[in-house]
Every structure is written in structure tokens, then in C-alpha cells.
Please model this.
Amino acid sequence: MTTATLDGRAARRCHNALNSLHSTHYFSPDLGREAGALGITEPQAVNFAVRAAALGPVGAGAVAATFYNYKYELVARHVPAVWATAGPEQVLAARLRAVDATLRRLLGEDAVTSPDMAEAARLALRAAEGCSRSARPLYSAHADLPVPEEPHLAYWHAATLLREHRGDGHLAALMAAGLDGLEALVTHTATGKGLAPKWVFSTRGWTRQEWDAATARLRDRGLLDEDGELTGRGVALREEIEHETDRLDAAPYAHLGDKDVARLTELAAAFARTALGAGAFPADLLGKR
Model:
């Protein structure tokens, strides 16, 4: 370890770049193809299965708790029934095949086999050595999985560990701020950086009526104004949540150190830009409307 005082913004930038590439497989036709071959064809069931598989054949309660912002009734519609179609080990193998195909398609063979990819994998795995298992179920479950041998898959695996480590801490920050799952989504969308409402409704299971009710609750708390925009208090709360998330997620980046965090961010951002340019995400995924 070189420092325990790494700038939280630098760590967040690194995380964002890593998470961008990790997240590409959720929107990839390769994942749908691999899951479909196992008999899992409903997009929402695919999402629950591939992200929860590391936990084992858990029920709806465990998935709803660890995913936080999905409506329980939607989760229960697919979990644990999905495990009768394909077990977690099958799902994890299919996920890794999909990631392999996705990264090769989005980044190209030259990038996948490049020295930069091997370097990024080494740096990201070293950062993950600084993660903590305590009270971090999704991170801890993924940390039990073997590290793939190929550098691009090892890099994706490390990015997954770092994403879930930060995510588990973020949920603690949301709970401490008094935001339930849907309120967290509404306030994040109000920042302009979160999912557009149509994607919340189609992937998280909430309805427009429930969204409007959450908006009213947040307005009553003085966090949103009459137009659904964040008030000064709302902006401050979202900033506090991100700062607390930074604090809870500081260890892996402090372990890596300033210089190597900067280098990993540079590499990760380049890969993410390439993937974005290749159409990795829907154009209307983020936004306030």
C-alpha cells in the first residue's frame, strides 16, 4: 500500500471506467444467446440469474436484498424458479462465455490480446486484493469464483469484484440516508446520471404510479421540487451518499496507490470508450425523462 488518503474522486473515476466495461454484458445479445441455450429466455430472469448465480441457488429474498432497487414481486416471479431451468454453475459458465464474445466483439481481437489488457488485468486484480468481505454479500460471493486465465476475462472478473464491492457499500449509504430502493432510483435519475424512467419500469418492475408516489414522498421531505428536480437539500444528500460510498470503497484503490490508480483509470477509460463507440449501450438508457 502506498497511501490511505487517495482522493475519493480519483477512485470513483476509476470505478466508473471499470464498471462501464463490466456492464456491457447486461445489454449484449451474446448473453441472451447463451442464457437462451440454457432455457432462460425472459430478459429479467436472465438478469437475476447471471448476477445472483455467484450466491448459489438463493431465493427471491436474498436477491431483492442484495439488488436493493428491484421490486420484490418482480424478483419473486423469476427466483428461485430460474434455478430449476439452469443451476448457478451453468449460468456462471454461460455468463463467462457471453462476456468473452461481447468483449471480443466490442473491443476487437487486437485490444483483447494486447499488452494494455494484460496490464489492466494485473492492476485491477491487485486493487481487488484490498477489498473486504465484511457485510458485502455480492462482492464476497464473486470473490469465491476462480480468476479466469485469459487477460480480458481476468480484467472483467476484477472489474466485477470492484463493482460489487462498491455496490455493497453504496447500499449501506443509501440505507443510512433513508432512501428505499425506488427512492434511490428516483433521486439518481433526477441527477441526470441514472436510468431513464422507462428503463426503471421495464427492468426493475416498478410502475409509473409507484414512481409518482415515491416522487411525492421525496417532495414531502424537501428533496425534490414540484418539477421533480433535486432541491438544494436533494443535491446535498446525493453528494453525501457518493462521498460515503467513496469512503466505504477506499481500500482497494488505496491498496493500489495513486500512480497505479491513474494508470488503471487511463486503460479502463480507453476500453470503455471503445465499447461505447461500438454501441454497447442503448442510446436512451440514461436521462431524466
